[in-house]
Design goal:
Chains: A mainly alpha (291), B mainly alpha (308), C alpha/beta (330)
Structural class of chain C: alpha/beta
Strand content of chain C: 15-25%
Largest interface: A-B, 47 and 53 residues
Distance between the termini of chain B: 6 Å
Number of helices of chain B: 13
Distance between the termini of chain C: 15 Å
Radius of gyration of chain C: 21 Å
Oligomer: heterotrimer
Order of helices and strands of chain C: EEEHEEHEHHHHEHEHEEHHEEHH
Shape of chain B: flat
Number of strands of chain C: 12
């Protein structure tokens, strides 16, 4: 039994290693990875990097154009936009990663059950996922966020639930393809429990497609969250959220365009980096698509 | 084929019941008392209770849901807290703009995405391919609302070429449609390209070349027909994204569509209107998906055969 | 090599693929010829370069990564490698037709089979579409498929039937040369025999020359006049079928024969050829077979052995094993 488990995990680790080796040969993916690493660093050490506090108002210095003192200028309350964007990375990354975490966990759980047990459980779960999929995901997120009310945690839940069906589908598909392979049969034959088989054998083997989808999913989650904040459904002021900052800057677009340009740029670069990384991962995972 | 359509429409019903269940549940868990919302803060406790009894708000969850479905079948999905008009009326009057916007964007996505995807694939690794792919990646990563603002900034504020709001003239439609279409153009381009690259490697393409067929015919007749099959699916899914994205786009360009209505409703805590909008858009999306599946069956004989 | 006017004469052909891990010498200094009306069996392991040679004749080597780097392919006396793409198009399908290995994937899934045959007819004959479709139905009947099925899509046919359709396409314009690339490998054994029988019969009817690419010596014995044995990009033995079967010259050919199970023999085990095909990006020096050859001497790793005629029409590229028969030839 142990031998099987180890062999199995060894297999998937070998796969991941191979994938990262291929990934390292894709320049765009490496750029994406570098940007993501920088972003995570920025988010963690925002307090040290940002020259001002995110809520630090200075009405005397409102609407200042970008300068040495205020790299990206100041907003209507005289808050330093550069600092707010730095702090904003915390919110976006948190929402992105935790929302995807929720979706991967919930979707993975449902997908694994549907794929492993098949039959009625499969039917019930997947029809429910179909229903969720029939609502455009940003709308579903809007509907959930509207019901739960504003706030970071609610935003994460809304975005997380709205992307759960995707992961359920992927995991179910992987489980179906793995379920009848020999090492799973062998584990069953020696009397391993279903839970053990799912956790030790099946999940490690469908990790790769989930990682790819999750990377792209973080990008989508950040975009969705920013969109919700943009229409007033996400984070409440004064907490700096890129989408909310954009929304706030709209009023002053005619005179102070920089107020909307920089937060937008921050979102785009983040998403671009995650997409590059996700794309690279997918190619690394499926080399037959690349010649 | 008729039987297939009938069956597909029949399959639609449980999905709609599911959507209505989600929408109703969300309404149910929404904090705040609808009676208070409607009657206002000044209303007496008795009046609130009377309203709750009259509207059946004290009944058990499933009874309320049953009533909701029963009414929904008759087209009644509640009244707006703000205007007291039926939600259906509010939404249906706003729906044409949203559909127009989404459809226009869809057309842009198809007209740009498919040709660019094909040319990129045919000239893989060329300058054209690289530039297209970079643009597609940027388009994919561009937040809809930011793109809209940038376009307004440039074409309306700076150049004063196009209006920054409204949706009543062709000129007014240009910026919103481009804004909403950008991501879909990127997705359709990428999908067309990868599908095309996959197909040109197939054996039957080699067969066509071995017949002595011209390269252009090989591409347009043999490769394209097969390459577009998965693109059809993506295009269908894009329509859902477009309907969702319309919420943001309409709000940026002040277009009187369902999206803006919903955003207004969110700000006013007018939840029946929000949920009604979700329900209507889900129905529209499901119908489009049905249409896509029909197109799918039409272009792919292997699928058509299953439903004869 | 022969006095008769040759239909196909490949001289010193080299085709390379440039891939990440190096240059694959798929075909290396290959010589091969075929007289009109002749049937040539083209035998070798997977990866020996048989399909690449065929694609080279068709002018369909995928480029990139493939490239014809050297040689001539004389067809009816003219070098195909010097033809323009447009000239090649009229030869492809018209004079030289090819049947590919896997019928499951060789037909376009979204076009009905009659149109796929008619396309070939339209390209090489001055006919109307109606006439082409009529010809397509004739061809279907010729390969044993009912006319009524002309408007069906490929997925509605079984594997064997699909290969019949592929054959119908290939023969629709009465080609002078037909190249069949393992036409039965992907089929069930019972179907294989039927398809081979059909090809044999049609070939005689249409009177076309045939290059039958295969790794099955049984098929060669049944269908071919001559055999070329290919190993690692080169032809190592070329002989009339009977001569080859009676006294195989090259150690590799011998190995191929030994690895066929023989019911009459008492031996318990099959004699397999030791070792593996060499890495095509890094071929052994001298004779490419020498690391696996039981008869190899030191010289084998140094010089590339020339083709030696050991009996009339029987050429072997092996100085060691070729010698015993030398007296027969001269």
């Amino acid at each position: 039994m142990n031998e099987h488990t180890e062999k199995n995990i060894g297999q998937s680790q070998h796969g991941l290693k191979e994938i990262f080796k291929r990934l390292s040969r894709a320049p765009l993916a490496m750029i994406g990875l570098a940007i993501v690493v920088v972003l995570v660093f920025t988010a963690v050490f925002a307090g040290f990097i940002a020259p001002y506090g995110y809520a630090e108002q200075d009405l005397m210095a409102a609407f200042e154009e970008p300068s040495g003192a205020h790299l990206f200028g100041t907003d209507e309350f005289g808050r330093d936009i550069f600092s707010r964007i730095i702090y904003g990375s915390r919110i976006s990354l948190q929402v992105g990663f935790i929302a995807v975490g929720i979706a991967v966990f919930a979707g993975g759980f449902l997908g694994a059950i549907a794929g492993y047990y098949g039959g009625k459980a499969d039917n019930l779960i997947m029809r429910a996922m179909d229903v969720l999929l029939s609502i455009p995901s940003i709308l579903l997120a809007i509907a959930i966020a509207a019901s739960l009310g504003p706030g970071l945690f609610n935003l994460m839940i809304a975005v997380g639930i709205s992307s759960t069906p995707n992961y359920a589908r992927i995991v179910r598909g992987s489980v179906l393809s793995i379920r009848n392979q020999e090492f799973v049969e062998a584990a069953k034959a020696v009397g391993s429990s279903d839970l053990r088989i799912i956790l030790k054998h099946i999940i490690p083997n469908c990790l790769a497609p989930i990682i790819v989808q999750a990377t792209l999913g973080v990008a989508i989650a950040i975009l969705t969250a920013a969109g919700l904040s943009f229409i007033g459904l996400g984070i409440q002021p004064p907490i700096p959220e890129w989408g909310a900052m954009l929304s706030g800057g709209r009023e002053y677009i005619r005179d102070y365009a920089y107020m909307t340009v920089f937060p937008g740029l921050a979102i785009m670069i983040t998403i671009l980096a995650l997409n590059f990384l996700g794309d690279g991962l997918r190619d690394a995972l499926d080399p037959k698509l690349k010649r | 084929m008729f039987k297939y359509i009938a069956r597909r429409i029949l399959f639609l019903l449980p999905v709609l019941v599911g959507v209505s269940f989600i929408v109703f549940s969300l309404l149910y868990i929404t904090p705040g008392d609808p009676a208070r919302m409607v009657l206002g803060d000044q209303a007496t406790e008795e009046a609130v209770q009377e309203f709750r009894n009259k509207e059946g708000l004290n009944d058990p969850f499933l009874v309320q849901y049953g009533r909701y479905v029963y009414k929904a079948i008759q087209g009644d999905i509640g009244r707006s807290y703000m205007t007291r008009r039926p939600v259906s009326d509010e939404i249906l009057s706003a729906f044409p703009s949203t559909i127009k916007l989404a459809a226009l964007s869809m057309v842009i996505a198809i007209l740009l995405g498919i040709p660019f995807g094909i040319i990129s694939a045919i000239r893989q690794y060329s300058l054209f391919d690289s530039v297209t792919m970079i643009f597609a990646m940027v388009g994919l990563s561009m937040p809809v609302f930011w793109l809209g603002i940038l376009l307004i900034l440039f074409f309306s504020v700076q150049l004063r070429w196009l209006p920054s709001s409204g949706f009543d003239s062709l000129a007014a439609m240009i910026l919103p449609s481009i804004t909403l279409a950008a991501q879909s153009v990127a997705i359709v381009t990428r999908m067309t390209r990868s599908s095309m690259l996959e197909v040109v490697r197939q054996d039957y393409i080699r067969t066509a070349r071995a017949k002595g067929q011209k390269e252009s015919v090989v591409i347009w007749r043999h490769a394209l027909g097969n390459a577009l099959i998965p693109v059809v699916t993506v295009v269908g899914l894009q329509f859902g994204h477009l309907l969702g994205g319309a919420v943001l786009t309409e709000s940026i360009f002040s277009i009187p569509g369902v999206g803006r209505l919903m955003v207004e409703a969110i700000k006013m805590r007018d939840y029946p209107l929000v949920q009604g909008g979700v329900l209507y858009i889900a129905i529209a999306f499901s119908l489009v998906n049905l249409l896509v599946d029909l197109v799918y069956a039409w272009v792919d004989p292997r699928i058509k055969a299953q439903y004869k | 090599m022969e006095d008769k006017k040759l239909l196909l004469d490949i001289q010193d052909l080299s085709i390379h693929y440039v891939v990440e891990s190096g240059t694959v010498h798929a075909v290396e200094h290959l010589n091969l010829s075929l007289a009109p009306g002749e049937n040539l069996g083209f035998v070798g392991e997977t990866g020996a370069g048989k399909t690449t040679t065929a694609l080279g004749i068709m002018g369909l080597v995928p480029n990139p990564p493939g490239k014809v780097v050297n040689g001539k392919i004389l067809f009816e006396g003219e070098d195909l490698l010097k033809k323009t793409e447009e000239q090649m198009r009229s030869i492809r399908g018209g004079k030289i037709a090819m049947i590919f290995q896997d019928p499951m994937t060789s037909l376009n899934p979204v076009i009905t089979v009659d149109k796929q045959i008619a396309e070939m007819v339209l390209l090489h004959n001055n006919v109307t579409e109606q006439q082409a479709l009529e010809r397509a139905e004739e061809m279907l009947e010729l390969v044993g498929i009912k006319r009524e099925r002309a408007r069906d899509f490929p997925h509605q046919f079984s594997g064997g039937m699909k290969q019949r359709v592929v054959i119908a396409i290939a023969l629709a314009c009465n080609p002078t040369l037909l190249i069949a690339d393992e036409p039965t490998t992907a089929l069930d054994v019972t179907i294989q025999a039927q398809v081979l029988e059909l090809m044999h019969e049609l070939r005689r009817k249409i009177n076309t020359s045939l290059i039958m690419i295969t790794h099955d010596l049984g098929i060669v014995a049944e269908m071919c006049d001559k055999v070329a044995i290919m190993y690692a990009g080169k032809v190592v033995e070329y002989a009339p079928t009977e001569a080859l079967f009676n006294h195989p010259g090259h150690p590799y050919t011998e190995g191929l024969f030994n690895s066929i199970p023989d019911l009459d023999s008492d031996e318990e085990e099959l004699k397999v050829i030791q070792g593996l095909m060499p890495d095509p990006t890094n071929l052994p020096s001298g004779c490419t077979f020498h690391p696996r050859c039981p008869y190899a001497v030191e010289a084998c790793s140094k010089d590339v052995p020339p083709m030696v005629e050991i009996e009339p029409g029987h050429f072997v590229a092996c100085p060691v094993r070729g010698k015993p028969y030398l007296h027969l030839g001269k």
